[in-house]
Structure formats: structure tokens, C-alpha cells
Design goal:
The protein has one helix at 53-67; strands spanning 4-7, 10-13, 17-20, 38-42, 47-50. It is an alpha+beta fold. The strands form two sheets. A three-stranded antiparallel sheet has the order 3-4-5. It has a two-stranded antiparallel sheet with strand order 1-2. A hairpin with a 4-residue loop joins strand 4 (38-42) and strand 5 (47-50). The protein binds zinc ion. Zinc ion is lined by residues 25, 27, 29, 32, 34-35.
Length: 76
């Protein structure tokens, strides 16, 4: 049973994750370092960023396995 998930070279405790973005980040800022990355929000207001859909999906799978649930209407 995994308790940590590797996101952007950081081992993140799954119990600290609040939500995972379904869409790649876009804010239009020329200084933005996270354009096209998938935000993973942590409970203290921090975010980490998955750099690909595959990395984001791996986070979701780890969360599902950790919580012992799979969504009944998600067949992916
Ligand atoms: Zn941005």
C-alpha cells in the first residue's frame, strides 16, 4: 500500500493531497514556470506539479489505491 507518490521529483504523502487538476495549467503569465503542467494541490496551500498527463494519472491511481476506492463511473 503506497503512502507516498513521486511528483516532480518529490515524494508527496498521499494524505496531504486535496485535489488534482483535470486540465493543464494555463494562466497566460509570461513568467509562469508551470504552463502545461498539472497542478496537485496540497492541504497547506502548497502545490506540486505533474509534468505530463501520465504523471498526473499515476497520482490518481496511487490515490485510488491508497483510499481503497475506485470511482464507479470512471472506466479508465
Ligand atoms: Zn501560471
Amino acid at each position: 500500500m503506497p503512502t507516498f507518490c513521486l511528483i516532480d521529483d518529490k515524494y508527496v504523502p498521499l494524505y496531504r493531497i486535496l485535489w488534482v487538476s483535470a486540465l493543464p495549467h494555463f494562466c497566460g503569465s509570461p513568467d509562469c514556470q508551470q504552463e502545461g503542467n498539472y497542478e496537485v494541490r496540497l492541504e497547506d496551500g502548497e502545490s506540486v506539479w505533474a509534468s505530463s498527463p501520465e504523471e498526473r494519472d499515476a497520482v490518481l491511481r496511487a490515490l485510488e489505491a491508497w483510499s481503497g476506492e475506485t470511482s464507479p463511473d470512471d472506466d479508465q
